[in-house]
């Protein structure tokens, strides 16, 4: 099942490419804030799913392109992103894995059709790049989880973009606030795809297009640390709860720079494409830069 928000944060499910309003199935759907409501849906999904299916069986819904799509989790409690989690460098030795590590993305969530704004971060930032990522949404409280049990704690999967500033000055400071945490730098959605549709999270394709040109096309099988290991590692230190988002990092080959007036799209498998426009409040032209071992745009 694919669950999303549309228009004024009505709760919907996808049916044959259309969207069916299932808000009436959820108690307090007009009272709770959107994120709290979605967290409740996730935590109580086993009892709600039959109600959603009953409503969807009686309605054809409305066309996808006739509504405004919203981020499915507008203000998540945790939005954790993996650092350098793909074996994508030239001459990468798969026997020497990078250390597992995460950062908290902040609160810059936007949804499909929204605009990424590029702030002027000074001379330290020479490029801005959208990193397309496979993300998963936690379905139940998770603390001290064993790796072999970890996938049981996932509710579903989602498109996610980690917009990042690049450049020697920014990278040298290593402050995630400066190069990862600006407003609008966490596009997600348009829908959460429940995990039963994709039983193996380690064999899923991720793509990104810039101005209509395919720039990245990689598979989650290239992760240094898979989803189950991530959950086991994270829950040593924090309790993950329903609605928390964990994004798995990106494959750096093919990363492309974005600037004022650009458009980019990304899609994991067939989750539904996520579209974003770009507006720059900094210099109109940025120096092309890329991490070692990647091709410059």
CATH superfamily of the largest domain: Fumarylacetoacetase-like, C-terminal domain
Please state the average pLDDT score.
89
The rough form would be described as globular
Binned, the helix content reads 10-25%
Q: Segments where pLDDT lies below 50 for 5+ residues?
A: 285-297
- Please identify, by name, the CATH architecture of the largest domain: Alpha-Beta Complex
Give a short account of the largest sheet. Answer: 11 strands, mixed
Provide the number of structural domains.
2
Kindly name the structural category: alpha+beta
Number of helices: 5
- Portion in strands: 25-35%
Through-space gap between termini: 37 Å
Cα-based radius of gyration, to the nearest Å = 19 Å
Description:
With 297 residues, the protein is α+β, with helices and mostly antiparallel strands. The chain folds into 2 domains: 2-70, no CATH class; 79-280, Alpha-Beta Complex (Fumarylacetoacetate hydrolase, domain 2). Helix content is 14%, strand content 31%. The chain is built from 5 helices and 18 strands. The chain has helices at 34-43, 45-57, 168-173, 176-180, 227-234, and strands spanning 2-6, 10-15, 18-21, 62-63, 69-70, 79-82, 102-104, 109-110, 115-118, 127-138, 154-166, 186-187, 192-194, 205-210, 213-219, 245-247, 263-268, 274-280. The strands form 3 sheets. Strands 1, 2, 3, 4, 5, 6, 7, 10, 11, 13 and 16 form an 11-stranded mixed sheet that branches. A 5-stranded mixed sheet has the order 9-18-17-14-15, with no helix packed on it. A two-stranded parallel sheet has the order 8-12. The longest helix is centred in the first third of the chain and has 13 residues, at 45-57. It is globular, with a radius of gyration of 19 Å. Residues 285-297 have low confidence and may be disordered.
């Amino acid at each position: 099942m694919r669950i999303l928000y549309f228009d004024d944060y009505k709760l919907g499910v996808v049916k044959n490419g259309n969207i069916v309003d299932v808000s009436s199935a959820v108690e307090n759907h007009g009272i709770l804030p959107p994120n709290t409501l979605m967290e409740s849906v996730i935590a109580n999904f086993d009892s709600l799913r039959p109600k959603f299916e009953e409503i969807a069986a009686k309605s054809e819904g409305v066309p996808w392109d006739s509504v405004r799509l919203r981020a499915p989790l507008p203000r998540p409690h945790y939005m954790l992103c993996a650092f350098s989690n793909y074996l994508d460098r030239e001459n990468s030795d798969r026997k020497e894995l990078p250390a597992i590590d995460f950062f908290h993305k902040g609160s810059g969530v936007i949804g499909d059709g929204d605009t990424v704004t590029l702030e002027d971060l000074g001379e330290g930032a020479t490029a801005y790049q959208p990193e397309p990522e496979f993300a998963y949404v936690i379905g139940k409280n998770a603390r001290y989880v064993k790796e072999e049990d970890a996938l049981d704690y996932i509710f579903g999967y989602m498109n996610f973009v980690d917009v990042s500033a690049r450049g020697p000055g920014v990278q040298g400071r290593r402050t995630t606030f400066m190069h990862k945490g600006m407003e609008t730098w966490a596009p997600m959605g348009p829908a959460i795809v429940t995990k039963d549709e994709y039983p193996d999270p380690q064999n899923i394709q991720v793509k990104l297009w810039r101005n209509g040109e395919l720039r990245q096309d990689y598979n989650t099988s290239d992760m240094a640390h898979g989803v189950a290991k991530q959950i086991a590692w994270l829950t040593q230190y924090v309790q993950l709860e329903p609605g928390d988002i964990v994004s798995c990092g990106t494959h750096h080959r093919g990363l492309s720079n974005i600037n004022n007036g650009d458009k980019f799209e990304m899609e994991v498998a067939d989750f539904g494409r996520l579209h974003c426009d770009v507006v720059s409040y900094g210099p109109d032209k940025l120096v092309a830069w890329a991490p070692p071992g990647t091709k410059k745009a």
